[in-house]
């Protein structure tokens, strides 16, 4: 896995132009069965991929925390939301709550998440490759292929499955 993660940013850069063109076409003419295709590709990839061997998303990026996330996680810790924010979060340039630092404070050395059952929505949905109306998140996906080996593989399979 270390080798895959080491090579992933370079592989993503090499495919960036090709992926950008593909997503541009996808936005203009999404296939009628796109959601179904993406769900199949996502499910197939995650039958082969074990996130606990990687956790690169948790090590290199931080999720956005919605107000509902803050409330839920603060309750889990038996804290007031304002205490949770002060201790773990900061407000970014776009006025969103994000972690004060990465890797994620809640990631253990074994790649397990200490707040898995109450984790933020962004973490539950990552890498967003099974999202409805997938064509609407192409910019996010272009970023995620450089972070998540599974997202990279799904996009490569998607380009084979969807012909323009």
Automatic annotation (TrEMBL):
It comes from the Bacteria. InterPro entries: Puta_zinc/iron-chelating_dom (IPR005358). Pfam families: CxxCxxCC. Residues 1-20 are annotated as: Disordered. This is YkgJ family cysteine cluster protein. It comes from Flagellimonas aurea. The lineage of its organism: Bacteria, Pseudomonadati, Bacteroidota, Flavobacteriia, Flavobacteriales.
């Amino acid at each position: 896995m270390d080798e895959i993660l080491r090579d992933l940013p370079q592989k993503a850069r090499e495919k960036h132009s090709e992926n950008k063109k593909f997503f541009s076409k996808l936005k203009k003419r999404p296939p009628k069965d796109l959601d179904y295709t993406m769900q199949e590709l996502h499910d197939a990839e995650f039958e082969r991929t074990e996130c606990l061997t990687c956790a690169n998303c948790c090590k290199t990026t931080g999720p956005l925390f919605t107000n509902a996330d803050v409330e839920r996680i603060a309750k889990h810790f038996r804290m007031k939301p304002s205490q949770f924010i002060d201790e773990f979060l900061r407000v970014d340039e776009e006025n969103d709550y994000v972690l004060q630092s990465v890797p994620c404070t809640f990631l253990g050395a074994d790649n397990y998440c200490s707040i898995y059952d109450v984790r933020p929505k962004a973490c539950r949905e990552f890498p967003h490759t099974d999202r409805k109306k997938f064509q609407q998140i192409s910019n996010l996906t272009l970023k995620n292929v450089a972070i998540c080996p599974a997202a990279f593989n799904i996009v490569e399979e998607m380009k084979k499955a969807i012909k323009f």
